[in-house]
User: Fold Rieske domain-containing protein from Symbiochloris irregularis.
Amino acid sequence: MVVAAVLRSHELPEGGKVYKELGNRSVLLLRRHGVTYCLDAHCHHMGLSLANGEVTDVEDTPVITCPWHHRKIGLATGCLVGSTGCTQQRQRTHEVREVGGTIWVNIQSEPEQQLESDQNKSSFPSGVLG
Ligand code: FES
Assistant:
């Protein structure tokens, strides 16, 4: 487990999305409807970047849509979201706390249960996939 102060709150405005490398993981921080989320930055499916994914709501559930094959991933749960609702968690999410104007993330660097996105946790060569 790695707990890290990653951003000042004002650096992640409403609707914002920030890419970070923390410990041995690449993550995205996002703010939607005033809530801050953190999840692995590379898609559980084929490891491609979610950095340019569109953030929307599906039936009141905030999701990011992978720009490559259009899977919709719940920001809070890491589950696929669609007509059947939220199914098995595939994308790892990370606990976020915001204290005194600082955003802290608790990175599960060595989780007990492996998820699909753990295979793609590290960054790709700079400038290739973001
Ligand atoms: S890489 Fe295929 S859905 Fe994300």
Residues 125-130 have pLDDT under 50 and may be disordered.
